[in-house]
Amino acid sequence: MNVDSLAAAALVVMIALFAVIGILRKRGVGFTLTILGALVIGVVFGIVFKGHTSWVMPIGKIYVTTLSAIVMPLVIISILSSITSLGSAKQLRGIGARSVGWLILTNAVAIILAIGFGLIFGVGKNSYLSIAGVDAANFEGTLKSFSEVLIGFFPQNVVADIAGDKIIPVILFTALIAVSSVLAAQANRAKFAVFKQFVEALKEIIYKAVGFIIELTPYAVLALVATATSNGLSRGGMMWSLIVLLIISVVAMAIDTWGVNYVLLKVAAGLPPLKFFRKIVPAQIVAFSTQSSVGTLPVTTRVLQEDIGVSPEVAHFTAPLGTSIGMPGCAGIWPVLVAIYGIHGLGIAYSVTDYIILGVMGLFVSLGVAGVPGTATIVTASVLTAVGLPLEIMVLTIPIAAIADTARTATNVTAAAVAAAIVARREKALDEDIFFGRKVFVPAGKEQSEDAVFAPYNGEAAEAQEPPLMGGSCKI
C-alpha cells in the first residue's frame, strides 16, 4: 500500500492550523477576521500542497453534511415557535395573517430584485468554478418542470420528506400542525401550554446546536478552500468574482432597505419614509454590529413602540415573527445571488422557468429561518438543496458572507420594522401622535397625568407640526 507522504504532512499541518484558530478564538479574535484569515491561509495551503489534499478533503465534507443535517430541524422548530406564539384565533386571522403576508411580500420583492441584479451583472460569470468531485453536468439533469415542482410542494409522507431533504413539503406540514395547535388551544389553553413550552425548549436546543456548527465555520473554510485551491480552482477568477458578488449584494440590500421600504411606507402605511428611517437608526446600528436579528429585538420593539407608535401587541408579535419569516437580506437577496453565482460559475443552463422556480423556492424557504448570526448560511444551504445545486457553492462564498452579514442583518431588521408599521396601520394600532412627537409612549401599568403624557406644544408649534397621516390603500 502506497502512502502519500505529502497528503499525510498536509493533514498534520492542517491540524496545527486548526489549533492556531482555536487559540485565536479563545483570545477574542473576531469571527469575521478569523474566517478571512482562514481563507487566505487556505489558498496558500492549497498552493503549497497542490494535488496532495486528499486527507484534508473529508474535513470540509463533514462540515457540509453536518450543516445539511441541521437544516430540517431548524426550519421545523422556527415555524412551530413563530406560529404557536400567537395567543388566539383572532390574532391568527388579524395580526398574524397580515404580519405573515407583509413579511412574505417584502422578501418576494427582495428575491425579484436579487434575480434581476444577478442576471444583469452576470454574477459568477468567468469565475470558472470547479468543485472537487462534482460534475456540473450532473446538476443540469436534476432540474424539473414547474408543474413537477408545484406538485412536489405538498407533503406525501412527512418522514420520507424529511429524510429526502424535501424542504417545501416539510414547511407546509409544519405550518399545518402549528396553526392547528393554535386553534385547538382555544378550548383548553392549560393543556396546550405544555406543547408550547416544549416547542420553546426545543428551539433553544436547536439554536444552540446551530451555534456550535457555525462556530466550526473557520475550520471548514480553511479545509474547503485549501482543497479547492489544491485541485486547480482558478484562484484569480474566483476571488474577483467573490468580490463582485459581495459588492452587488451590498448594493442590492441598500436598495431594498431604503428604496423598496420607502415605497412600502409611503403607499401601504402612509408614513413619511425619511422620518421613519431616522427613527429606526438605533435598531439598524445594533443589527449591523451584532449581526443578529434576535439580538436586536429589544431595540427594535422599543423603537417601534416609543418612537413610531406601534402598539405593543403588534410590535411584540410582528418584529419577532420577522426573525423567522421573510428576512429579505438573509433569506432573499443573499441565497438567490449565491445560487446565481453557482449557476453561472458552473456553467449550468437555466431557463426563465428555472429562475422562477428558484425564486419560489427561495420564498418558501424563507418561511422558517432563525434570526441569529450564521442564519444566511443555513438558508442558503436550504435554497441550494431545494433547487438541486451543490452545497459547496455556499461554502466557497462563506468568507465574504461573513462580511455581508452586517448589511444582511440591517436589511432584515428594517424590513421587520416596516412590516410592523404597515400591520399596525392596517389594524388601526399605530399612534400618530407618538410618531410625530406630540405624545410620549407610556408603558402599560404606569399611570401618568395627561400633562405628562402629552408633549407640551403651543398653537404656533402645532401649526408647524406635520399633517396627519394619510391612510394607505394596500391591503393583504
Question: Layout of helices and strands, plus pairs?
Answer:
Layout: H1 5-26, H2 31-48, H3 57-84, H4 89-120, H5 136-140, H6 146-152, H7 158-163, H8 167-184, H9 189-215, H10 217-230, H11 235-269, H12 273-279, H13 281-290, H14 293-308, H15 312-321, H16 328-346, H17 352-365, H18 375-386, H19 392-396, H20 398-426, H21 432-435, H22 450-453, H23 459-464
Helix pairs in contact: 1-2, 2-10, 2-20, 3-8, 3-9, 3-10, 3-18, 4-11, 4-15, 4-16, 4-17, 4-20, 11-12, 11-16, 11-20, 13-14, 13-20, 14-15, 14-20, 15-20, 16-17, 16-18, 16-20, 17-18
Q: In short, what is this structure?
A:
This protein is mainly α and 476 residues long. It has helices spanning 5-26, 31-48, 57-84, 89-120, 136-140, 146-152, 158-163, 167-184, 189-215, 217-230, 235-269, 273-279, 281-290, 293-308, 312-321, 328-346, 352-365, 375-386, 392-396, 398-426, 432-435, 450-453, 459-464. It has a single domain, classed as Proton glutamate symport protein (Orthogonal Bundle).
